[in-house]
Specification:
The structure is a single chain. This protein has about 675 residues and is mainly beta. It has one domain: Maltoporin, Chain A (Beta Barrel). About 0% of the residues lie in helices and about 60% in strands. The protein contains 1 helix and 42 strands. The chain has a 34-stranded mixed β-sheet that branches. It has a 4-stranded mixed β-sheet with strand order 4-3-6-5, with no helix packed on it. Strands 1-2 form a two-stranded antiparallel ribbon. Strand 33 and strand 34 form a beta hairpin. The longest helix has 5 residues. The two termini are about 20 Å apart.
Length: about 675
């Protein structure tokens, strides 16, 4: 289990069927993943990648539009995690040591998964040097229930290792070194009913991040310095060479694309927290600098793609020309300053300003932010009201500027009877020059690719302690996104082109209620309800420039985003029971995901006067029942039963979304009720 696996428990965060995390209805590229203050997202795509093992995490925060100037490179949210230090005594743990087997019709048919987790921590030198290591081996054979066994497994293997060394050099300075290594492979990626095994790609990732952090106490202030390097190598290849055919009822042939990408980001961070200043209250200042250098180089090749109707008549052919080689460099500096001002026992305010730029974008951007915390009743902390507003900017993934080097499409259109109706038409890859933004905090150079996607967001929330062991929070947030990246085909008398621009927009509104009750970490329960609206211009930027590319550039559509869930209820908790037993329930009830209909040419179908089509409502009751059994005075075994979808509710996995498919609108596939047995060693 990794850090990212825990995020869907947060209101406004959900994982879509393709495995991607959506925060505030937006894709990963619009959020930042920060571990120990270091940005660890993929420089090429903006994806999160394989994150740190959850056993190595001390704290994690998911913040939708946080109003502190220290955070950058996002318009949706920030996932910020701090890892834990080794303890004063040596400790080790082994979880999930045995693999999970697959049984079908009463017969053993191989392994389903293996996820052993080994953790080791303790002092190398007492009171001076501490060490921690968490290593997971992750092997999964995930069944796709819309395909027949055994041709329905997505296979993945990974080693996910995180090591940390903490040195207390003196009473006033510490040094921390970390290294995260995460090589992983996926076979038959994105396997589904419409894309059986031959049409899927394989992917091989090589990821690592190394950091070195020095903290020095100067007087009553603290200076933190950090250097880091993140490298992500991505190799995506088809099962075998060949051409790909898309039809309304399913695809066949071979995956069309092959790419090798190496992306690296080097960072230098300085953070200064001076001593508190007393002037009309207490001021806690923070100022910082981030200097990042990123590079991205790769090679792409594409084979031909054919589009057919449901009767196998040829409608369109796409061929490609060009080498697809690129090498990019980017300099990404940022400066910020912020002040936390406690005016009195009832009111505190935050104000900050962030300046940032990316050399490839030819833009500079200012991000003012402000927030407040108010306790209405003097000397009583049971009711707290918070709010804020600010400006936020996405970091533009480097693959955006590789687009002009991608192989060019040549498109030939047919009438379904073998006669050419248009083409062959060559589409150039054009990176547009956006007009100067009227937004006063953006300065754009007059050159292609001068993109500055941003959002203006605000929120207000109230938190109330309802007893000594419970609290409830109500929150409303809203953001308006502008200058978002778009990709569309344009045909004029002089030119046919795929145009990458920055004219997209979107709106997100969310109201959520979260309640937590419990006396301690071993007896607690949480409930949340989120009401969300997230709409915007659907474009194919991520699909065409990401790791798993789609060959057709679709038309624009104004619709709900893929992660929008209008209503979502969550309940989860943990209780220790008598006889050293424990119960952990998890209940989720929500609207189904939206989907966008397409036509026989795989273009989005606009629905201006119709409601957004959705999957049926989702409901799942899961629970884990465990019991600890001592085997020695210091060792125990934890036996557990995990029940998934105990009510056997039909939670559909796919839909026939092509309007020319005879089964259009039909939902199918489901992961039904199942129970898993497991045990861990406790040390």
């Amino acid at each position: 289990m990794t850090l990212i696996d825990s995020l869907p428990l947060v209101p406004g965060v959900i994982r879509t069927p393709d495995g991607r995390v959506k925060i505030a209805g937006a894709d990963e590229q619009h959020s930042a993943l920060i571990v120990n203050s270091v940005d660890v997202t993929d420089p090429a795509t903006g994806d999160f990648g394989l994150s740190v093992p959850i056993d190595s995490i001390e704290t994690v925060k998911v913040m939708q539009s946080p109003y502190l100037a220290q955070y950058g490179n996002f318009t949706a949210g920030v996932v910020s995690a701090e890892t834990r230090r080794g303890g004063d005594k040596w400790a080790y743990g082994l979880n999930d040591p045995l693999p999970e087997v697959r049984i079908r019709s009463g017969h053993l048919v191989g392994l389903r998964s293996a996820t052993p987790r080994l953790n080791l921590s303790g002092p190398l030198i007492r009171n001076r040097v501490y060490f921690l290591d968490g290593t997971d081996y992750l092997m999964h054979k995930d069944q796709v229930r819309t395909l027949p066994f055994p041709e329905n497994e997505i296979r993945s293997t990974a080693i996910n290792s995180f090591s940390q060394l903490d040195v207390l050099a003196t009473n006033r300075q510490t040094v921390t070194a970390t290294f995260h290594l995460a090589p992983h492979q996926i076979q038959y990626a994105n396997l589904n009913f419409f894309d059986p095994r031959p049409v899927t790609p394989n992917a091989d990732y090589q990821e690592y991040t190394g950091t070195l952090t020095h903290r020095l106490q100067l007087g009553n202030g603290l200076l933190s310095s950090a250097v880091a390097i993140t490298h992500i190598g991505t190799d995506v290849r088809p099962q075998s060479p060949g051409e790909m055919t898309l039809t309304p009822i399913g695809n066949f042939g071979r995956y069309f694309g092959k790419q090798d990408v190496d992306a690296t980001r080097m960072q230098w961070l300085e953070t200064w927290n001076p001593a508190q200043l007393r002037w009309h209250g207490e001021h806690t200042f923070q100022a910082g600098m981030v200097f990042a250098y990123a590079e991205d180089h790769g090679q792409l090749t594409n084979s031909a793609v054919h589009l057919q109707d449901a009767n196998d008549n040829l409608l369109q052919s796409i061929t490609y020309s060009g080498a697809g080689n690129y090498r990019l460099h980017d300099i990404e500096p940022a400066l910020y300053a912020q002040d936390h001002w406690v005016l009195n026992s009832q009111l505190a305010m935050d104000a900050g300003l962030r300046w940032e730029t990316q050399s490839l974008t030819a833009t500079t951007r200012l991000a003012p932010r402000a927030g407040f915390t108010w306790t209405p009743i003097p000397n009583i902390q049971s009711t707290v009201i918070r709010g804020g507003m600010g400006v936020f900017y996405d970091g533009v993934p480097l693959n955006t500027y590789a687009f002009h080097s991608y192989p060019q499409q040549t498109v030939t259109t047919y009438d379904g009877h073998g006669n050419i109706t248009d083409g062959p038409r060559v589409f150039e890859n054009v990176t547009a020059t956006d007009p100067h933004s009227p937004f006063p905090f953006i300065d754009q150079g007059n050159r292609s690719g001068n993109f500055a996607p941003y959002s203006l967001a605000w929120n207000v929330e109230a938190e109330q302690n309802v007893s000594s062991f419970g609290s409830i929070r109500l929150r409303y947030s809203q953001s308006e996104a502008s200058n978002q990246l778009t990709l569309q085909s344009q045909i004029t008398e002089d030119q046919s082109a795929l145009v990458l621009g920055g004219s997209g927009s979107g709106t997100m509104k969310q109201f959520d209620v979260t309640a937590g009750f419990g006396t301690d970490k071993e007896h607690h329960a949480y409930f949340s309800y989120a009401r969300q609206i997230a709409r915007g211009v659907l474009t194919d930027v991520a699909n065409y420039l990401g790791a798993f590319r789609y060959p057709v550039v679709r038309s624009f559509a104004l619709a709900s985003t893929a992660g929008e869930i209008p209503n979502r209820f969550l309940f989860w908790g943990m209780w220790n029971l008598p006889w050293r037993m424990g119960l952990s329930p998890h209940v989720e009830y929500r609207n189904g995901f939206p989907y966008q209909p397409v036509n026989e040419l795989q273009q989005y179908v606009s629905l201006p006067n119709a409601p957004q089509p959705r999957y049926p409502r989702y409901f799942s009751l899961d629970a884990r029942l465990s019991k600890d059994i001592n085997i020695t005075s210091k060792h125990a075994v934890r036996l557990s039963l995990n029940g998934i979808n105990l009510t056997n509710h039909s939670n559909y996995l796919q839909v026939h979304n092509n309007i020319t498919d005879a089964q259009y609108g039909t939902f199918f596939g489901n992961y039904g009720r199942h129970v898993l047995a497991d045990f861990d060693f406790l040390f």
